[in-house]
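Q: What residues go here?
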């Protein structure tokens, strides 16, 4: 593919300062997304998934690294331009339904609100809100307030709100986490449909592998580091043989090759093979590299999910 990536994350580090401590939520994230692609991120609680989405949504800034969305360097955006980016270029859907919608506004007035903030004239925003609510299957419910709608319906309104200003990037943080199976499938079918119709690029966090299946690619995030892309073409999908052996793809084998031992963990999102390293030593190294706060880490001595980058040939 010779097209420029739509999203580029380069060595993204995010540390939160809490009292006198640093919490390192993201430890050097590198990834790209093509325009129109849908990527799912799975990973345990505290892995840094929401932190990453917040950075891409312009709601927070990384401690170090580079973030480019649709040719815009997010770190260069300030003031009005940053507000514009949040309002017009990216749409968010959160797991917590109450975070997506204003309880005292009808579905229609929830959808018109972001357009109002973006300066869209009254008649036009009403028309577009009606179209969006029709597209999400809620034409008959548009005058109801969120409390009069089911959870699934509320999340579909949330998708319409996220789409209000026709963003190019949709960020979904556990959008189906609070829904039953069939409502989750409805919301995901809807996202899929909108994605095709509007050539949306979608980054979605989920704990649900069935939901992750909607994506073109599934990435794992653990302890602030991305693991390998775990989606394979069908013919390369590893299979367990009768005696319980599995032939790992080369990319996985090279990640594990140097580990003296491999820890096997059963996690909600699947089974994790992890090279065993001294966790404490790693964390100390990161914290040292992190200081001073704003400088990008010169050398990264820690391993990312057992993964080495070129600059880390020594350890
Ligand atoms: N505003 C903040 N201030 C301090 N620490 C934070 C803040 N936000 C996140 N963290 C910490 O950063 C780490 C990653 O948090 P994050 O919310 O990104 O994880 P997550 O993968 O979204 O988890 P979950 O699946 O539970 O939503 C955690 O250790 C968390 O406690
Ligand atoms: Mg989260």
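A:
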């Amino acid at each position: 593919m010779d097209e420029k990536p739509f999203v580029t994350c380069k060595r993204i580090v995010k540390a939160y300062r809490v009292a006198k401590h640093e919490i390192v939520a993201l430890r050097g994230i590198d990834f790209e997304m093509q325009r129109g692609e849908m990527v799912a991120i799975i990973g345990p609680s505290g892995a840094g998934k929401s932190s990453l989405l917040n950075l891409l949504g312009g709601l927070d800034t990384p401690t170090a690294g580079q973030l480019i969305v649709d040719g815009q360097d997010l770190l260069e955006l300030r003031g009005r331009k940053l507000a514009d980016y949040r309002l017009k270029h990216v749409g968010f859907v959160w797991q917590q339904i109450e975070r997506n919608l204003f309880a005292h506004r009808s579905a229609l007035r929830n959808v018109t609100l972001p357009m109002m903030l973006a300066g869209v004239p009254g008649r036009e925003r009403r028309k577009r809100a009606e179209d969006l609510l029709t597209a999400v299957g809620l034409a008959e419910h548009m005058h109801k307030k969120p409390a009069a709608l089911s959870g699934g319906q509320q999340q579909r309104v949330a998708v319409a709100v996220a789409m209000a200003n026709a963003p190019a990037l949709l960020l979904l943080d556990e959008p189906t986490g609070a829904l039953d199976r069939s409502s989750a499938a409805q919301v995901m079918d809807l996202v899929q449909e909108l994605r095709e119709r509007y050539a949306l690029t979608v980054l979605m966090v989920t704990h649900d592998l069935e939901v992750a299946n909607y994506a073109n690619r599934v990435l794992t995030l653990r302890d602030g580091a991305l693991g390998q892309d775990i989606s394979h073409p069908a013919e390369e999908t590893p299979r367990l043989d009768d005696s319980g052996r599995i032939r790992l793809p080369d990319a996985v084998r090279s990640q594990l090759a140097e580990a003296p031992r491999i820890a096997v963990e059963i996690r909600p999102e699947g089974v994790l093979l992890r090279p065993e390293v001294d966790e404490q030593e790693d964390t100390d190294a990161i914290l040292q590299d992190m200081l001073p706060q704003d400088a990008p880490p010169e050398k990264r001595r820690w391993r990312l999910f057992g993964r080495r980058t070129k600059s880390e040939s020594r350890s």
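A: Context that may help when evaluating the design: The pocket of magnesium ion (ligand 2) is lined by residues 49-50, 173 (CB under 6 Å). The first strand starts at residue 7 and ends at 18.
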